[in-house]
Design goal:
Helix content is 43%, strand content 17%. The longest helix has 30 residues. 51% of the residues are buried.
């Protein structure tokens, strides 16, 4: 570990602005022999792409990785500015800690800085001290003057094991989330120690703050009745790898991608997602969320906070499923990590304390708690771990929207093809972008290992990050070139630049255009079989997008969006208006409206649902609706009112018995007769094994079946698809699941009704072929997947599909199914 040399501490300085302060601390590093003078520009460059303000008047400017060749040796310098210098609007810095990091020897100083952040009085003392030794001792040893020179290591718990973290980026968000998920399954107290710091293994934020890098040795400790079992499970998870899938920064570009010498003035950025884009600029402005500072009723605010967090968890679960279907479990795991932030008790307790003790509103308290933790994460020297501060703020914003007094300047997503420019994009922002309309992404901040960059790559959108604030001044409509291969933004492309860009992307553009033109063509196999490809949606605005993407209707409308994030159930008028808006947007195409599917992982506080030991086996879906008939009747009335404006089908979720279906139909018919509405088709979701086994009897009462393959998989295999260790086994292409689908289709064929699939395997390329071969007639997929699924079917013959389906049914494992050729 290095020590902070007294000669590298300058007290009593003044600075005109942030740039001046960075240049001063850079000069100290030069004079101390740590860096070449040119590295000062690297310190400034880093500040343009990353905020180095930590909190409590401390900032840590450090250079960009590509300039490490100008570092002579690892070193740290401190510039004390007693009167402070404005770092960001509202942030004033008194200690500027300049870092030249050639190795990891500086990490202890960064750790000690993080400790100072939690002690406002100590930070203020260091900002005013007249003794360089005070600062040097505090940052080198982590002890205040007069304190013992060493502190005892945290006591080990009775049971423990040591392990080396082999994940390429250390214990970052996704592997840490997996570890937390496992730890939470045990009653034992579990801690993880890294060096002389320890954290609660059931807290994601606590683990991330340990800064555990690849190759680090950690100690996992446990105490309690099930401590041995907990350690065994954690050891197995660490030994076998905690991540589902990971992607390195190198994935942002490869050596064989075209490199172009641009003529026009350009901005150097960081390549994040390969590809070229040429088009007009659209500046993305995130909405401003306004919250009240105080509140009169702490009990009401605590309830508001709890409800908002629960609603945000449900949103993240839906987003996980959508991204998983579109981009794979590894990319979707980002949102599992986000959900884990919302389960962090320290984060929640801090917000609740502000509500109870300071009479703060739920929104203000949550904003403060998130902000404090995000600053601590941002203090991590490891770029990947520090980038998780953006993820935490993204999660915080998701909850904050539900607590807002008002949301100003709500951003409008583009409706024409543009190159999107933003200060930064959260994973949630990026996940909802339409690749057909967003030609490229440029952010002023961020890095290639951010979750935003990973999602951009999964969507196939060229992207550059870390371009600096100047790009935020580019006028909307300005034509630019974005080169995601080299990390360049060409601001005023010449004719030659345009020609080069067009040539480089010609093949890809032709292919995409052909897909767009073909998206409205029906999905008919080469031997004449028609498969309907429809959309899964969960919001009114998505109905129009589904049609534009080539969807032949909506195969699943998740109505839960109307019931979450609020204090009471939506009225009949509110529901009718939302459903009617979607029916009209479809312009004559059919929509299947699934009745309320609350329960399981979807709790709604205002319904006063009792806690259940096994909520997925309890009051959920149709069971809840039948137990609360007025809630059910209100929704049915709204659906029938919407049905007057276009073709609507009603679908009941989680039907497990014939009696449930008959009761639901009876209630539905009563409502229809009361309104004098026309009959509509009524179908059921096949999601549990009992429904498969009773499919012949159920088919006699239903007009169609829709197989929810995600739930059918977890109930068939008895595997929670969100389980940190077992989720990989929850594969919808497991032969057991496929045989259940086959049995369902055969029963439906016998009764003369059709079968659709609306789970993840409907958009899986292998699943498309097998389901088609099994006789499924409708595939309901996420909107971005529609064109690709239709194109795949048009290149397929039923003979091929049936042959593959037969072979899949005979396979012994899901791996064998996926290995079929």
């Amino acid at each position: 570990m290095i020590s902070l040399d007294l000669s590298a501490v300058r007290l009593g300085a003044t600075a005109i602005d942030k740039t001046d302060a960075i240049r001063q601390v850079g000069r100290i590093l030069v004079d101390a022999g740590y860096i070449e003078p040119g590295y000062i520009d690297s310190l400034l460059a880093r500040e343009r792409v990353a905020n180095t303000f930590l909190g409590n008047g401390i900032a840590i400017p450090h250079g960009v990785p590509k300039d490490r060749g100008m570092i002579k040796k690892t070193g740290v310098a401190v510039l004390q500015v007693p009167e402070g210098v404005e770092w960001n609007p509202g942030d004033r810095v008194h200690l500027v800690v300049g870092i030249a990091a050639k190795s990891d020897e500086h990490l202890q100083i960064l750790t000690n800085l993080t400790d100072v952040l939690g002690d406002a009085a100590e930070a203020a003392r260091l900002a005013r001290t007249t003794s360089p030794a005070d600062i040097a001792q505090r940052l080198s040893s982590g002890t205040a003057p007069g304190a013992p020179t060493t502190e005892p290591l945290p006591d080990d718990l009775p049971n423990h094991f040591d392990a080396v973290i082999t994940s390429p980026h250390g214990l970052h968000a996704r592997p840490a989330t997996a570890l937390v998920d496992i730890a939470k399954g045990f009653g034992a107290t579990i801690r993880v120690r890294h060096g002389d710091r320890a954290g609660d293994a059931k807290s994601l934020i606590a683990l991330l703050n340990l800064g555990i890098e690849s190759g680090a040795t950690i100690r996992v400790m446990a105490e309690g009745a099930d401590a041995d079992a907990a350690l065994a499970a954690l050891r197995e998870a660490i030994d076998t790898g905690l991540e589902e899938e990971e992607e390195t920064a190198g994935a942002a570009g490869t050596a064989d991608l075209p490199r172009i010498d641009w003529e026009g003035p350009s901005v150097a950025a960081v390549a994040a997602s390969p590809g070229l884009a040429l088009g007009p600029v659209r500046q993305y402005q995130r909405g401003k969320i306004v919250v009240a500072a105080t509140a009169r009723d702490p009990a009401a605010e605590l309830t508001r906070l709890e409800r908002a967090i629960e609603a945000a968890k449900r949103e993240l679960a839906e987003l996980y499923e959508e991204v998983k279907a579109r981009a794979g479990a590894g990319k979707a795991a980002i949102f599992r990590a986000h959900a884990e932030f919302l389960a962090d008790q320290g984060l929640i307790d801090r917000a609740k304390a502000l509500i109870r003790e300071d009479a703060r509103s739920a929104g203000y308290a949550w904003e403060q708690s998130i902000g404090e933790q995000a600053k601590t994460l941002a203090a991590q020297q490891d770029a990947l771990l520090a980038a998780r501060a953006l993820d935490l703020r993204d999660v915080g914003r998701r909850v904050l929207r539900m607590l807002a007094e008002r949301i100003e300047d709500e951003p409008n997503l583009p409706d024409t093809p543009v190159i999107l420019i933003a200060d930064d994009l959260s994973p949630s922002d990026t996940a909802r972008l339409d690749p057909a309309l967003v030609l490229g992404i440029c952010t002023a901040a961020g890095g290639p290992t951010s979750h935003t960059a990973i999602i951009a790559r999964s969507l196939g959108i060229p992207a550059v990050v870390g371009a600096g604030d100047s790009v935020l001044d580019i006028a909307d409509g300005s034509p630019i070139v974005l080169d995601g291969n080299s990390g360049t933004l060409v601001l005023i492309p010449t004719d030659a630049d345009r020609a080069n860009a067009e040539r480089a992307r010609a093949d890809l553009a032709t292919q995409r255009e052909a897909e767009r033109r073909a998206c409205y063509q029906p999905a008919i196999t080469t031997d004449g079989a028609r498969i309907e490809v429809v959309a899964n949606i969960a919001a009114p605005a998505e109905a129009g997008r589904a049609v534009e993407a080539g969807g032949e209707g909506v195969g699943l409308l998740r109505t839960e969006f109307l019931f979450l994030g609020r204090d009471q159930a939506p009225s009949e008028d509110e529901q009718a208006a939302a459903y009617t808006e979607m029916v009209r947007a479809l312009n004559g195409l059919p929509i299947i409206i699934r009745t309320l599917d609350i329960g399981g992982d979807k709790a709604v506080p205002y319904m006063s649902m009792p806690a259940e030991e096994n909520p997925f086996l309890g009051e959920r879906g149709i069971r809840l609706c039948l137990n609360r008939p007025e809630l059910f009747r209100t929704q049915l009335r709204a659906i029938f009112r919407a049905a007057a404006h276009g073709p609507v089908r009603i679908m009941y979720p989680m039907i497990s018995t014939l009696e449930e279906l008959k009761r639901a139909k009876s209630l539905t018919e009563e409502v229809r007769l009361e309104l004098g509405a026309d009959p509509v088709e009524i179908g059921i979701m096949i999601e549990v094994p009992s429904a498969v086994m009773m499919a012949e009897e159920l088919a006699a009462e239903a007009d169609f079946f829709s197989i929810g393959s995600n739930d059918l998989t977890q109930y068939c295999l008895a595997v929670d698809r969100m389980h940190p260790l077992l989720s990989r086994q929850a594969d919808g292409l497991h032969p057991a699941v496929l045989r259940m689908i086959d049995a369902t289709v055969r029963a439906a064929d016998k009764a003369g009704i059709w079968v659709g699939v609306c789970g993840g395997i409907a958009g899986d390329p292998r699943g498309v072929v097998i389901l088609t071969g099994l006789g499924v007639r409708e595939l309901s997929v996420s909107i971005p997947s529609i064109a690709a699924v239709k194109a795949q079917i048009r290149g397929l013959s039923m003979e091929q599909a049936r042959a593959l389906a037969r072979r899949a049914l005979a396979c012994p494992t899901s791996a064998a199914v996926r290995g079929l050729r």
